Amino acid sequence: MKFTKENITKIILEVNQHKTNIQLIIIYNSKGFTKKIDSQQEDSDFFSNKEIGEILDAVIDADIKFKIYYNEFSFAEDIVNKKINHNSLLVWNLSRQGSENNQKSLVTSICDYYKIPFIGSSVYTMNLCRHKYHFQKILNSFNLAYIPTFTQNEALQRESNDGNYLIKMMKGSASRGTDETTSNLSWNQAKKKITTLQTKRNVKFIVQEVIDGYEVEIPLFKFNGVFTALGVAGISINGTFFLENQILSEDGSDNNNYDFYDFEKFAYSELGYSCEKIIQDAINIAEIMELDDYCRIDFRIRFNGDFHCFDISTTPYITEKSSPIYLLKQLGFKHKDIILLLLGTSTNPNIDNH
């Protein structure tokens, strides 16, 4: 259920023995380099030069042969025109261009069509996990870490609800469309805000209950068909562990107001409970949603230990300041080792499953 230092060391040793056979293709979108297909697409969907630089440095340090594309169409053209050998590739898709819920789909669809091995989940799963209303309904059907969530139409038709609420874009990353003006609202305030937003933006929104609690991220890697956790990374904002009205904005990766801490140790020593159940439920969610290779499941945990899943990331960040790197370093590894772990857990599965 959880990686040990010995598990990871063994995987890394095996990858190092065979890495000369790996030709890694990395497709990503970067601010200032990638020409946007949609000029209205938000910059926060793209990597900063610092972020992508950290990832590429880790690949270089891991001594992996690789080729980069910062435009999906350039990769597509080279595949269609057979400028690169389909048979020797492993594709890592970090791109995010496209319309609404299909922002990550193009590269993965091409790989699926040409039977090219790729790292990560299917197009279906990626799109499903970005649809925050749909995945919450699935979790609710399994009685699994559900957060009460309403479409904008459901919210407008409902008279009242107790509690505090926030407004998010229906599709995309967890914090998309969320800021101080759209969070910690009463039900009636949320309804008024939805009405205002509808007139300004041609997108769909959800209204979701605010969960006061500890925020944690659980990175998972699928090895030999079984999901295993790196650990449980807590997030503190401005030094605060228990989060009420604090939110990590969508461009949080570009600011320094948050830090990670070992939530497992904190929960055991300060709260008096084990994290075994939340790790197992993160794995259950990954299996139910048919995730593959690697992912990250995010929760808010109340004082009483009840936890609620608010985001499922199919391509979690592995920049220097990210929960997978934090947890890996806690075990004594370096940034480059995340690349070797990723390759070790992605090159074993049956390609037909992709």
Could you tell me the strand content as a percent range?
Answer: 15-25%
The oligomeric state of the chains shown is: single chain
Characterize the largest beta sheet: strand count, sense, and whether it forms a barrel.
7 strands, antiparallel
N-to-C SSE string, H for helix and E for strand: HEHEHEHEHHEHEHEEEEEEHHEEHH
Query: What count of helical segments does DSSP give?
Result: 12
- How many whole angstroms does the radius of gyration measure? 20 Å
Overall mean pLDDT? 89
The structural class is alpha+beta
Regions with little confidence, pLDDT below 50 for 5+ residues: 348-354
Give the helix proportion (percent range): 25-40%
Shape: globular
How far is it from the N-terminal to the C-terminal residue, by CA? 24 Å
DSSP summary, beta strand count? 14
